[in-house]
Design a protein that fits this description.
262 residues; alpha+beta; Ribosomal Protein S5, domain 2; four-stranded antiparallel sheet; 12 strands; 26% helix; elongated
Length: 262
């Protein structure tokens, strides 16, 4: 199902952008109100709900013991999955993951993985045999634009709240002590900043309508130290070198604000 933006709405958004204005009165480089709540799922070892404006996502972290990958026998495993529920947006359809769902999960996963946010070395219980596997589940509750940044913040918050049972080896079996837990070993903090191009203007934290009329998108993942760890280009139009440099510089400065919410 494709959601078509009325031509009058499209023209209005473009005309506002040309004059450095937006429908909701924000500056072009301004985020909507952000709120983060952790431990929102009692059955998950880590969880968080993030709202950016009216966009709302929930993330749950479920760890379990499993076998490591053959080429990384001493490292834990991260697996990210995204569920786009039809109740969150009329264009979301039930069934196998859509291209948008897969892209969202992969971009968020890349930011977490390439920032080395989780200390995977410390998730090894017995090299070559037993490691912690972290299943990260993204659930879109209300899509009002900019799911990338909301999901990245939610994953970051959920991972920081995650507790692992104490694990030991007895008779070549893993024994878990759920009464004694440890914090998930965290190395870093990361945030994603999403920009869209409308006309010749670059807009941060787009609403759903702004996303629909945009000709290009750029996601920039940045660590709290200012290092770029992930980028993704979307949309049909190209971006100039100046466009990319602007987005990167703005993302570095905005990341400092975003990690403060954590």
């Amino acid at each position: 199902m494709v959601d078509i933006v009325p031509e009058i709405t499209k023209e209005s958004i473009i005309n506002l952008a040309v004059n450095d204005k937006r429908e909701d009165g924000r500056e072009l480089d301004e985020y909507r109100d952000i709120s983060i709540e952790t431990d929102v799922i009692s059955k998950a070892e880590g969880s968080a709900r993030v709202k950016i404006g009216d966009t709302q996502v929930i993330v749950g972290i479920k760890p379990q013991i499993g076998a490591p990958f053959p080429d990384t026998p001493d490292l834990g495993v991260l697996m990210t999955n995204c569920e786009m529920l039809p109740m969150a947006d009329p264009t979301f359809e039930p069934g196998p993951p859509s291209e948008d769902s897969i892209e969202l999960a992969r971009v968020v996963d890349r930011g977490i993985r390439e920032s080395e946010l989780v200390d995977l070395d410390k998730l090894c219980v017995e090299e070559g045999k037993h490691v912690w596997m972290l299943f990260i589940d993204l659930h879109i509750i209300d899509n009002c634009g900019n799911l990338f940044d909301a999901c990245e913040l939610a994953v970051m918050a959920a991972l920081k709240s995650t507790k692992l049972p104490s694990a030991s080896i007895a008779d070549d079996e893993v024994v878990l002590d759920h009464e004694n837990t440890i914090d998930l070993p965290i190395n870093n903090e990361v945030a994603m900043c999403t920009f869209v191009k409308i006309g010749d203007k670059l807009i941060l934290d787009p609403t759903l309508n702004e996303e629909k009329v945009a000709s290009a998108r750029l996601n920039v993942g940045v660590t709290k130290d200012g290092n770029i760890c992930a980028m993704q280009k979307g949309g049909i139009s190209p971006l100039t070198k100046e466009d990319i440099f602007y987005c990167v510089d703005k993302a570095v400065s905005k990341t400092k604000e975003l990690v403060e919410y954590l």
